[in-house]
Amino acid sequence: METQTNETDSFAEHETKSFSEYQEVAKALQPYIDGAKSGDGKLSRSAFYDHAHIVGSIGGQFENNTADEFGEAVSSLGESPNIKHHIAWIDISGPAAAAKVEFLDWKGFRFTDFFVLYKKGDQWKISGKTYDSHAQN
Prior knowledge:
Layout: H1 2-38, H2 41-45, E1 48-58, E2 61-66, H3 67-77, E3 84-93, E4 96-106, E5 109-120, E6 123-132
Parallel strand pairs: 1-6
Antiparallel strand pairs: 1-2, 3-4, 4-5, 5-6
């Protein structure tokens, strides 16, 4: 009987830790999300590792940016107070994760962003992003 209790306790601990990691990944995405709304490119940039790379298209135009260039682009767009977002999913395997975030009305566009994240030490950060603007692609 004690074996079952230990197995149950172990399962509960694993599930709690797993749920906590999902919350940590969502938390790591928040500066990016807040920067999109406020137009604060430095805030968005803070969510990325220095090596991060961002590719996608806006209005059918292919974009290929470093994290610094992307942060500057967010700042140049300015505030987008009506933006809505939804984290569609997060998938985690050890220190690696992927996430899909949907944005509606970011300067009139709908975006789907796919993020790759990595946990170094106790901190999750975005390693790369690819996106679609859903218009003229």
